């Protein structure tokens, strides 16, 4: 895996920005409509996993289509080899890179998931993983299934946004800063931050709350889960976040399993895809491509 410009001179990993950040919203050039937008996602990727969980939690499976990419990337990036004839059924593309370059022929960054294709204008609208789940929760509200949870309640949005920014820096992106660091100081700085965040989450759950913001499931729980579920299986060893495991945090471990018990979380969690993607694709960290056996963890 080539990170190129995303590694700073001091060895820190600095994630590339999102190229496509148009909004799907009423009154704009990309209004929300059932069947118009198509999501591209990987079951291995935590950023894409968020979009899949929220799509299912809100009952949007028939409103927003999805194509799952192969967890193993080659030199051209994410492939559609899980689809019939190794082609995306919506666009006919063999690689996700074709959609990026069709939308911007000058694009030179990594081809990332999640991203959303507009079937009307025939271009990518967004690869903004920060925004996509919020779009499902707000712009697509008219198509939410009866009884779907309000993951982003208006009265708590400022609180949720602030919390999510802290969570991203300390945990969601923090594990990548540890795993992709190319200097000891950059690695140690990131690891200390990761475990300070995990410690704080463990303490936050100490008052008996079911979820991060109380008794109701929110966007923050989705964002925490997609890192927690990968922690012991990948980040602990592969990214060298080895101070403690998730199972060593009694409250966090119980919380993660509580989320896993919810069908939208469980149905979109694929440990085989997760392990094969990280250990086979990221040869800058694991040059042999050997996928480890384990860990022996019971999520049920």
UniProtKB/TrEMBL annotation:
Pfam families xref list: GST_C_2
CDD domains referenced in this protein's UniProt entry, alphabetically: GST_C_Omega_like
GST C-terminal domain ranges (all copies): 153-278
Active site, UniProt feature: 45 (nucleophile), 176 (proton donor/acceptor)
Residues given in the record as glutathione binding sites: 78, 110-113
Residues annotated as site: Lowers pKa of active site Cys: 235, 278
GO cellular component: cytoplasm
Name listed for the protein in its UniProt record: Putative glutathione S-transferase
Organism: Thermostaphylospora chromogena
